[in-house]
């Protein structure tokens, strides 16, 4: 195995300082940080390629990202990007959107979201002049929350009693924003329900609409794209696994694929390795689980008495919404039909806070339209795509669907499911393309290939709990809990991943910072930020 092929499915000899379960953005970042600190690190991935929700796949002449569509706050001001630059020696480059970040469609409203606070505030005031004062106050709260993000999540590095005390005292204001919903905070200054819907139009990025979502997370997401504009990784999302995997390999570590962890080796309430589903055991000084809190506690720790309270609390917490993802190959460029680098969000209705935000696909005659639909095309963003083997024009449409929408087929196997499953997918795919065609005429006839991924797809390929990519809901109860922290009731067992912070690659990198800082007993993120800024 060479650093060009930075992973293998075969046995890699130890000994190992740290085993990391999973190979998504958080696992890769943690692995690279620990490897650079001198540890021998082994990542174990159940899929046949690493990357988690940053991996890519191909069909015919087309290539798609599984989970990453755009990034924000990256080129000049971003802590997470500077850390990536420091760790990989600047190997991960980003292509800015430049023109606009998102295009929003509502029944009688069309808005282009610029790449700055100032531009978006001006756009919104033009559309809703009667809410000028409220718009300014709302964005003041957004910017304040953004500035205090690291403080809020950094408190989880402290012992639980000190975290609780801090939230009640000097961190009270930011904790208050974390423990109130976006709807509650918006309503302090904004009365127009249509404006609220516009401000929350991109809620699909974080898996929870304004009536359910913590305002802190809404602010983190929206500000992420307005502080320095949106961007896309040159080379596609798989560049994260490629470059971070190279760092791990070059520093004595390894990534092993087709290696599903069945259980943990735990002695005297201390983690000391893992057992694979083949029966093979691998020992290490410590273990990090980056496969989500549900998979970690409900699968790997379900028989540990010391974890019973945590499991009980986790079972009461709301999960994020289920998603479907339509992967499309186009004959001609989507740009020929009016689509650009920016994303398209289509809201067929003006949703109120009392509406269910998901599309009930159980009865498509009764519910013909999704509640929200997202379109993006990496082929319009990635200047490196023409240089790759699978370089056809692509696109993706994503929508939230009702819980358990495909449960009747959950016991069947990939490619061997009943005809009803494929019929349902065909009906959904046709409706999604029809809706996009209404905004961009002719795009439906431009389709060469389509394949719909469902929660069953996510569960099969990415091992997500119940096929939910975002894990825990971004609701307020999640941020009141002290469960979402790097330490566990098991000594030498740690967790990282989006459940510790929020959905998205920057948050995944942040969770790795938290986890590695505890293991290495120093602020490792600050070191890599400083190094990255020098490049």
Q: What is the structure about, briefly put?
A:
With 535 residues, the chain is α/β, with parallel strands linked by helices. It has helices at residues 25-36, 79-88, 117-127, 132-147, 149-154, 160-168, 172-178, 182-186, 193-199, 215-226, 239-250, 293-300, 308-316, 419-439, 455-462, 476-480, 505-520, 524-534, and strands spanning 16-21, 41-44, 56-59, 62-65, 71-72, 94-96, 102-106, 109-113, 230-233, 254-256, 261-267, 270-276, 281-289, 322-330, 343-346, 373-376, 393-401, 447-453, 493-495. Strands 1, 2, 10, 11, 12, 13 and 19 form a 7-stranded mixed beta sheet that branches.
Q: What is the radius of gyration?
A: 22 Å
Strand-pairing-aware structural class: alpha/beta
The CATH level-2 architecture of the largest domain is identified as: 3-Layer(bba) Sandwich
- CATH superfamily of the largest domain, called what? FAD/NAD(P)-binding domain
* Overall pLDDT metric: 95
Helix content: 25-40%
Shape: globular
Q: Detail the poorly predicted runs.
A: none
Task: Please indicate the percent range of residues in DSSP E strands (runs of 2 or more).
Answer: 15-25%
* Distance between the ends: 29 Å
The main β sheet shows up as: 7 strands, mixed
SS field, number of helical segments: 18
Output the CATH topology of the largest domain.
FAD/NAD(P)-binding domain
Count of extended strands? 19
Q: How many domains, in number, for the residues? A: 3
Tell me, what is the CATH class of the largest domain? Alpha Beta
Looking at this protein, list some descriptive labels.
single chain; globular; 35% helix; 535 residues; 7-stranded mixed beta sheet; 18 helices; 3 domains
């Amino acid at each position: 195995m060479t650093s060009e092929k930075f992973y293998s499915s075969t046995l890699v000899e130890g000994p190992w300082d740290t085993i990391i379960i999973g190979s998504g953005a958080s696992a890769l970042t943690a692995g690279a940080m620990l490897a650079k600190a001198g540890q021998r690190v082994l990542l174990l991935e159940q899929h046949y390629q690493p990357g988690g929700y940053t991996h890519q796949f191909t069909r015919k002449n087309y290539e798609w990202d599984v989970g990453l569509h755009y990034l924000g706050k990256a080129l000049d001001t971003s802590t997470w990007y500077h850390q990536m630059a420091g760790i990989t020696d600047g190997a991960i480059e980003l292509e800015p959107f430049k023109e606009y970040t998102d295009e929003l469609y509502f029944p009688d409203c069309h808005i282009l979201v610029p790449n700055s606070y100032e531009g978006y505030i001006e756009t919104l005031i033009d559309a809703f002049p009667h809410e000028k004062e409220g718009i300014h106050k709302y964005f003041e709260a957004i910017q304040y929350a953004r500035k205090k993000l690291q403080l809020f999540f950094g408190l989880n590095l402290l012992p639980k009693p000190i975290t609780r005390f801090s939230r009640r005292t000097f961190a009270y204001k930011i904790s208050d924003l974390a423990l109130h919903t976006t709807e509650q905070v918006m309503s302090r200054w904004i009365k127009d329900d249509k404006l609220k819907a516009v401000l929350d139009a991109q809620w699909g990025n974080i898996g929870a609409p304004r009536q359910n979502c913590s305002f802190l997370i809404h602010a983190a997401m929206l500000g992420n794209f307005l502080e320095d504009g949106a961007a896309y990784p040159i080379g596609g999302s798989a560049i994260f696994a490629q470059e971070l995997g190279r760092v791990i390999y070059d520093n004595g570590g390894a990534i092993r694929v087709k290696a599903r962890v069945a259980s943990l080796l735990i002695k005297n309430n201390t983690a000391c390795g893992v057992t694979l589903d083949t029966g093979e055991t691998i020992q290490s000084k410590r273990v990090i689980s980056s496969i989500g809190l549900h998979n970690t506690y409900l699968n790997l720790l379900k028989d540990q008495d010391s974890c019973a309270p945590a499991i009980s609390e986790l079972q009461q917490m709301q999960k994020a919404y289920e998603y479907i993802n339509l992967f499309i190959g186009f004959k001609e460029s989507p740009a020929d039909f009016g689509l650009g680098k920016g994303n398209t969000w289509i809201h067929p209705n003006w949703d109120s806070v009392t509406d269910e935000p998901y599309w009930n696909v159980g009865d498509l005659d009764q519910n013909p339209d999704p509640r929200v639909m997202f379109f993006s095309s990496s082929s319009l963003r990635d200047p490196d795509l023409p240089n790759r083997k699978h370089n056809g024009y692509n696109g993706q449409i994503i929508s939230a669907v009702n819980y358990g929408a495909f449960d009747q087929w959950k016991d069947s196997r990939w490619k061997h499911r009943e005809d009803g499953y494929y019929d349902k997918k065909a009906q959904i795919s046709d409706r999604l393309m029809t809706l996009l065609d209404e905004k961009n005429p002719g795009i439906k006839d431009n389709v060469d290939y389509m394949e719909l991924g469902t929660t069953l797809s996510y569960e099969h390929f990415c091992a997500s709990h119940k096929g939910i990519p975002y894990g825990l809901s971004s609701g307020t109860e999640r941020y009141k809990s002290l469960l979402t922290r790097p330490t566990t009731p098991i000594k030498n067992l740690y967790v990282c991943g989006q459940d510790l912070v929020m959905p998205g690659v920057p948050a995944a990198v942040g969770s790795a910072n938290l986890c590695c800082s505890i293991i290495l007993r120093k602020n490792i993120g600050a070191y890599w930020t400083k190094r990255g800024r020098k490049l």
